[in-house]
Design a protein that fits this description.
The chain is an alpha+beta fold and about 160 residues long. The protein is built from 7 helices and 5 strands, in the order E-E-E-H-H-H-H-E-E-H-H-H. Strand 4 and strand 5 form a beta hairpin. This is C-type cytochrome, methanol metabolism-related.
Length: about 160
């Protein structure tokens, strides 16, 4: 896999956008990567939030660890609602003599206020549209994103 912003030239195009946020045909949040490799703000923010809140268990760039699975693989088989439910409600897997527990993060504002951002970052990684490491360039922060952050975090 390439290490640059775009892992390959042909990436999926969003079905729609509003205020700097992109959506797929089902209305779920998705990423947008320009031909020059510039990512949308939500994808960039997702990289930052993933690195801050998820990396310690799921490893760098969503690649997994001995402690938790690779989310770049998980997002190949689960949809957006399942991702949200898992993060918010947690998950417990027993098997092969191991117990793996994903804690419920539904009340963690550092995760839930940015859940769409984290999802679109991981989806871009899972689809092979985004390489490893910090995206080199990104679109400006939309005013709607900043307002939603302030509202969610309670800093309005």
């Amino acid at each position: 896999m390439l290490g640059g912003a775009a892992a390959h030239c042909e990436t999926k195009q969003p079905a729609s956008s509003k205020d700097g946020e992109y959506f797929d045909a089902k209305g779920n949040p998705t990423y947008h990567i320009s031909p020059d490799g510039k990512v949308d703000w939500y994808t960039y923010s997702g990289f930052l939030r993933y690195s801050s809140e998820c990396l310690r268990c799921h490893g760098p760039d969503g690649m997994g660890s001995s402690y938790a699975p690779a989310l770049v693989d998980s997002l190949k088989t689960i949809d957006y609602p399942t991702f949200l439910a898992t993060v918010a409600g947690g998950k417990r897997n027993l098997g092969a003599g191991q117990e793996r527990v994903m804690p419920s993060l539904g009340t963690d504002k550092n995760v839930m206020c940015y859940i769409d951002d984290i999802y679109v970052y991981l989806k871009a990684r899972s689809d092979g549209a985004l390489g490893r490491n910090r995206p080199a360039e990104h679109e400006p922060k939309p005013k709607a994103w900043a307002a939603a952050q302030d509202s969610c975090m309670g800093s309005e």
